[in-house]
């Protein structure tokens, strides 16, 4: 019986990790037009990746704080994109 639980936990962990990898923020601000915004977006993406690695290392037992941080980084990414679009309209 313990083996089955390990397989289920392992499969669930892989599925959860794949879900988080898919949801990663996009780097979609032109570095040629907006080098500072592009750099900020790249750094937010790196932070997202580091949080994902921390979640994996801690077996996703972070009481929801890491997931919340990733949600906020996704919002940051969207705001950076909107800032670039607003600057393009000038």
Question: Per DSSP, what share of the residues sits in E-state strands of 2 or more residues?
Answer: under 5%
Q: Report the uncertain regions.
A: none
Run of helices and strands: HHH
Tell me, briefly, the overall form: elongated
End-to-end Cα distance, whole Å, is 64 Å
Classify the oligomer: single chain
Instruction: Average the pLDDT over all residues and give the rounded result.
Output: 85
- Our count of helices gives 3
CA radius of gyration: 17 Å
Essential attributes:
mainly alpha; about 90 residues; elongated
Q: What does it look like?
A:
- With 90 residues, this protein is an all-alpha fold.
- The chain has one domain.
- It has helices at residues 2-22, 35-57, 65-88.
- Helix 2 runs antiparallel to helix 3.
- The N and C termini lie far apart (64 Å).
- The mean pLDDT is 85.
Briefly say what this structure is.
The protein has one domain (2-88). Helices cover 76% and strands 0% of the residues. The chain is built from three helices and no strands.
Task: Write the SSE topology.
Elements: H1 2-22, H2 35-57, H3 65-88
């Amino acid at each position: 019986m313990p083996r089955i639980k390990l397989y289920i936990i392992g499969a669930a962990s892989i599925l959860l990790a794949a879900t988080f990898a898919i949801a990663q923020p996009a780097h979609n601000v032109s570095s040629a037009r907006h080098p500072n915004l592009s750099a900020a977006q790249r750094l937010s993406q790196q932070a997202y990746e580091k949080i994902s690695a921390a979640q994996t290392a801690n077996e996703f037992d972070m009481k929801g704080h890491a997931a919340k941080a990733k949600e906020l980084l996704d919002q940051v990414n969207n705001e950076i994109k909107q800032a670039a679009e607003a600057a393009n309209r000038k």
